[in-house]
Amino acid sequence: MKIINKITKVFIIILMIYACTDDDNLSFLDNIPAPSNVSAVFNITQDNTGVVTIMPVAEGATVFDIYFGDGTVEPETINQGNAIEHTYLEGTYQVKVVASNIKGDTVEITEELMVSFKAPENLVVSIENDAAISKQVNVTATADFATVYEFYSGEDGVTQPVVTSNIGEAVSYVYANPGIYAIKVVAKGGAVDTTEYAADFEVTEILAPIISASIPSTREDEDVISIFSDKYTDIADTDFNPNWSQSTLYNVYDLNGDKMIQYSNLNYQGIDIGSEIDASSMEMLHIDIWTTDATSIDIFPLPNGVQPEDERFVTKTLVADQWNSFDIPMSEFTSQGLSVDKLKQFKFVGSGTIFIDNLYFYKQGSGVIFDDGLLTNGDFENGSDSWLIGVDDSTSAPVVTEGGNTYYSVDVTAAGNSYDVNTSQKVEIIQGNTYTLTFDAWSNVNRGIIAGIGLSKDPWTNKSETVNITTSKTTYSLTLSAAEFGATDARVIFDLGAEIGIVNIDNVSLIIGTGNIVVNGDFENGSDSWLIGVDTSTSAPVVTEGGNTYYSVNVTAAGNAYDVNASQILEIIQGNTYTLTFDAWSDVNRGIFAGIGLSKDPWTNTVETVNITSTRTTYTLTLTATEFGAADARIIFDLGAEIGMVNIDDVSLSSN
Q: In the chain, which end has fewer C-beta atoms inside a 10 angstrom radius, N or C?
């Protein structure tokens, strides 16, 4: 039987491969990731027979082997999307599911199954509104003698139950509308009788941002014209609610001290800038918009005295319940014939409610933008933001500003324990990774400090080194291994209390691995080192907008993922783990493949599917070169499986 099962699975995979291609080119298999998010959903007949339906699910799987955990020697093999029935006696079983993809990669999980012919007892239900996702409820149910539970949402016109889950596992459900609903949870086992929980529950809608928009970059005054932003100096006397006979309602929304413009019941709305501005030297218009119900917004910069027939605008699509951050090239306005040297107003046309922050024009300055890697505000130009004294989140590290530069500074007047005087920033540290910590430091005396990474709570495990600093500002770089610890709330550590003297710290950066091995990852040298596929005579397509150059391609017909590709040839060492980071965005929601692999037959690789949107987003992948390595390996971006624009920028790859 075991041989028959294996032959069956191989036959299924061969059939699926044959169905996917009509020629001998099977190199597309190299871009298929291993199965992920493997689970199994149980259902049980309520007739004391012990008949259980098992439905395995996974992303990227084609077939499953089901090991029933009851002494049945051989597994059963089923295709993705199918279920299988099995009869159990009363008891608790460990059901193993092995998911296989089209090329034979496997991932396995084990789910506990309880089969009881007693009615469920001691049903406990937890239901709460999600703190971050509007109108989403999170439900968990536990009960003795139960196998599964059903969640009835209480909505009219919706097939019930809306969700069925294994007992003890959490489920989420998003309602169409907020309100009070008569919800019900039914716990089921193998018995005829069930146990129910019922209650009236209020589903809430998040109507305003709960987090701030990203803090803008530090820029020189001459490189920015700010209309509304806490980061820059705004033009004085700007009126954000001039009387243009609009129906829109205006409010200043305060999120923990971060002020935003709120326009409700929007039809159209103006902003009267405090004085006429010349934006002809600016390259981009930036605006952050949050909404719960608007789908698009028309943005009009208006010259002084412009007539309605001469107005020009750009339309942006909005995604609900998140910040939509737009950097709009000024050319999108000037190419329509708009003059931007005498701007005096803005107009917004749309519907619903919008929140606006960080409205400003800018251009790329001549200075170098500091890269703090995994950290936030590593150059302290946002003051104490993200930097603590010790690990107390309510504290702010001391900073000073001199000559336009802000940095950390503390005067240790009495020597004690090194940790008595400390600054830290909490950051995720992944156990097993190697990190590079770089910083500038100087003092008024020659003295030592301790710098490193570690946990922010007991047992306080860390990896740190003593660094001897002097009166000269010097850059130090430490390579630190997190072999024995890791946590989402770990930290960068500077312990300074063991010796007296002033300690100044600036330009702190933490990266995974020993540095970026990609050449021209920001595309500022055009296509240099970037290829189409692996043909070294080709050059990947790039565009330049607003002074920024990036990779860009428009996929007009869907085909094999590798049909549209960008690669860079570089060394990959077999057995090493790498971190691939890049920015990507599109004009639609679509997927791409990204990873590392060989640049020639057998094309072995490690890739993942990344779903990109119209919002420029930074993605980070952890990739292990378990089965391959070569001096001429490559970074892979395979883009041809779906239609739509793909833009990529700021690519980095570091070895862990």
A: N
Closest CA to 182 of 168, 166, 203, 164: 203
Q: What are phi and psi of 334, to 5 degrees?
A: -70, -30
Task: Identify the CA nearest to 193 among candidates 228, 146, 234, 150.
Answer: 146
What integer pLDDT is reported at residue 155 of this predicted model? 96
pLDDT of residue 2: 43
- Residue 597's closest CA among 560, 571, 619? 571
Partnered with residue 449 across adjacent β-strands are 467
The ranges of the chain with pLDDT < 50 are 1-8, 10, 12, 17, 20-24, 27-28, 368
Give just the sign of the alpha carbon dihedral 164, 170, 173, 179.
positive
Instruction: Give the integer Cα–Cα distance in Å for 133 and 135.
Output: 7
Write the CB contacts of 248 (distance below 8 Å, at least 6 apart in sequence): 263, 264, 265, 266, 267, 268, 269
Sequence-ordered strand ranges (E) for 247-383: 249-255, 258-264, 268-277, 284-291, 296-303, 314-317, 323-329, 343-349, 354-362
Token representation of residue 469: 């600093």
Using an 8 Å Cβ cutoff, are 514 and 479 in contact?
A: yes
Contact 617, 585 (CB under 8 A): yes
Are 591 and 609 in contact, with CB atoms under 8 Å apart? yes
Are the C-beta atoms of residues 648 and 636 closer than 8 Å to each other?
no
Mean pLDDT over the full length of the chain? 89
Q: Which residues lie across from 239 on neighbouring strands?
A: 272
Give the pLDDT confidence score for residue 385 in this predicted structure: 93
Q: Under 8 Å CB-to-CB from 180, ≥6 apart: which residues?
A: 200, 201, 202, 203
In 3D space, the residue among 603, 559, 561, 430 whose CA is nearest the CA of residue 60 turns out to be: 561
End-to-end CA distance of the chain: 44
Written as six digits, the tokens of 482 are: 């997190």
Output the furthest CA–CA distance in the chain (Å, rounded): 84
CB neighbour list of residue 51: distance below 8 Å, 6 or more residues apart = 44, 45, 85, 86, 87
Query: What letter would DSSP give residue 575?
Result: T
Q: What CA–CA distances, in Å, run from 265 to 247, 353, 511?
A: 7, 6, 45
Residue type, 65: D
Closest CA to 594 of 575, 571, 610, 576: 610
Tell me: the pLDDT tens digits for 207-256? 999 888 877 877 888 899 999 998 899 999 999 999 999 999 999 999 88
Of 114, 219, 207, 201, give the one whose Cα is nearest residue 153.
201
Contact 485, 496 (CB under 8 A): no
